[in-house]
Predict the 3D structure of the following.
Amino acid sequence: MKIYKLTQVTNQTIKAFDSLIPQLSSSCTLPSKKDLEDIVKSNATELFVAQENNQILGTLTLVFYKIPTGDKVWIEDVVVDAKARGKGVGKDLVLFAIDFVAKRQIKSINLTSSPERVAANKLYQKLGFVKRETNVYRLSLV
Ligand SMILES: CC(C)(COP(=O)(O)OP(=O)(O)OC[C@H]1O[C@@H](n2cnc3c(N)ncnc32)[C@H](O)[C@@H]1OP(=O)(O)O)[C@@H](O)C(=O)NCCC(=O)NCCS
C-alpha cells in the first residue's frame, strides 16, 4: 500500500471519490471532476490517497491558511473504504499528513471529529491528537 499526494484527477479518482464520500457523509454532494481538480491545483489544499493494487482505498485532505495568529492547518475528510478498514490505512494516511506538515514551519495540526465516530476518535488520540475544550458552531444558511 502506498500513500501519495494526488496531482492528477483521472476517471479512477472520480470513481473512488464517488464511493468514498458517501461513506463519510450521506448528505454531501459528490465532488465533480472540476471540484477534485480545484482541490489538487489549490495552494491551500493537499489531497492524499492510499492506494493498493491500483485501487484507491482511502483519502485525507490537508487545508492550509494564514491568519493574524499564524499559519494554520486542518485535517479534513478522512475516510477509508469499509472493505479496507482495520488494516492501518487510516493510520498511515494520518501519519503521512503529519509528516507532510512537520516539514513546514507549522506548530500544530487541527481537526474535529464527531464523538459518534468512535474509530476516528480512537485513531486520532492514538496518534497523539489531544482533545481541546472549545465549542464548535455552525450557522445554517439554508
Ligand atoms: C476512521 C477510519 C478512517 C479509520 O480507518 P482504518 O483504516 O480502519 O483505521 P486503522 O486500521 O488505521 O486503525 C488505526 C487505529 O484506529 C482505531 N480504530 C480503527 N478502527 C476502529 C474501530 N472499529 N473501533 C475502535 N477503534 C478503531 C484503533 O486505535 C486503531 O489502532 P489499532 O488497530 O492499533 O487498535 C475509518 O474507520 C473510516 O473511514 N470511518 C468512516 C469515516 C470517518 O469516520 N472518518 C473520520 C472523519 S473525522
